[in-house]
Amino acid sequence: MNTTTEWHKSSYSANGGNCVEVREFEVGADVRDTQNREAGHLTFARREWLALLSGARSQ
Predict the structure, then answer these.
(1) Position 10 confidence tier, pLDDT thresholds 50, 70, 90
(2) pTM of this prediction?
(3) Are 42 and 20 in contact (CB under 8 A)?
(4) Which residues does 46 contact at the CB level (< 8 Å), separation at least 6?
(5) How many CB atoms lie within 10 A of CB 49?
(6) Which has the closest alpha carbon to 31: 19, 43, 45, 39?
(7) Residue 37 falls within a domain, yes or no?
(8) Per UniProt, what is one Pfam family of this protein (predicted)?
(9) Beta strands in 1-59, from DSSP E residues, in sequence order
């Protein structure tokens, strides 16, 4: 069983802004729409999540 952290928004998100929430865990991360939480979430394997973050940081 994976132990997950709490959902959190980016520190760059403005109050009330359109953004996503993330909860990271040992083997990956879950991502969901802050304003549409009931729609579910996407799950990324650790390798995919780290690649996404790396790509975002290089922009």
Answers:
(1) confident
(2) 0.76
(3) no
(4) 26, 27, 28, 29
(5) 19
(6) 43
(7) yes
(8) DUF397
(9) 8-9, 20-25, 28-33, 42-45
46 domain residue, yes or no: yes
Residue 31 belongs to some domain of the structure: yes
Other CB atoms within 10 Å distance of the CB of residue 33: 15
Question: Sorting pLDDT into bands at 50, 70 and 90, what band is 1?
Answer: very low
Tell me the residue range of the domain where 34 lies: 20-57
4 is a domain residue = no
- pLDDT tens by residue, 19-39: 889 999 999 999 999 889 999
Tell me, what DSSP letter sits at residue 43?
Answer: E
